[in-house]
Amino acid sequence: MDNHERAVKAITERWHPTIPKATHSGILNIAGQEIACDVLKDGRRILRHRNFAKFMGKSKANSEDMERARTLNLPVFIIANNLTPYLTPVLAERGKEIFYKGLDGRKLIGYDATLLPEVCKIYVQGESDGILQKQQLVLCHLLKDALQQ
Question: What is the pTM of this model?
Fold first, then answer.
């Protein structure tokens, strides 16, 4: 199978007419930042990829980070080398992209909303272990402040 055939197959599988559809949409406000979210017909709660990545400080990833994220099958905002020891099978499952249609029929990509508390746990543990970088510490403190409200 050549690259073109693989691409066509991937697009067809990703956007097949049977993909889940949102029944509700809203905004999750965390410490003054907004993450668009949706509820699918099957009850899953989804955080939209673009907003979640921006919230996590990774709205634009370089090609090396994108390739590593694909290899690990995780979101780009959680694949930093210093966070690797904290990656778990639960995180890997919750970090899979979910393809769905929004209320307006647009094709969207998101993550299971239960990924957010798992990411918070990683950052809090990383802070406790003293391994977070400066930008990660800022995000960690933002998350902790939001959780205390």
Answer: 0.80
